[in-house]
Design brief:
This protein is mainly α. The chain contains three helices and no strands. The longest helix has 46 residues, at 11-56.
């Protein structure tokens, strides 16, 4: 039975295609995650800037900024800031 086996068969050829497909899938997922994370960073930094403005001169700007927010609430901004905080907390290198 073992006589029919071709010893010249290269196992690397078998592994190449799945590895390349897996690598391509991984790269696509990584690019998508990077784009999503970039959007989250921009939103979080915008939220920080708005928070600083509101803390410095709340009376003047709070209603103007509230009118521009989704559903006229600060909930979305608070959610993004919390998401950013959790990400930053998780990414801290602990030694």
């Amino acid at each position: 039975m073992m006589e029919d086996v071709n010893d010249d068969f290269d196992d690397e050829e078998l592994d190449k295609k799945p590895t390349n497909e897996n690598g391509a899938n991984f790269n696509r997922a990584l690019q998508k995650a990077a784009g999503h994370m970039e959007n989250t960073f921009v939103a979080a930094f915008a939220g920080v800037i708005l928070a600083v403005i509101l803390l410095r001169d709340r009376i003047t700007y709070v209603e103007q900024i509230r009118e521009l927010m989704p559903q006229k609430k600060f909930d979305t901004m608070a959610f993004i800031l919390k998401k950013f905080f959790v990400f930053m907390h998780m990414s801290v290198c602990r030694t």
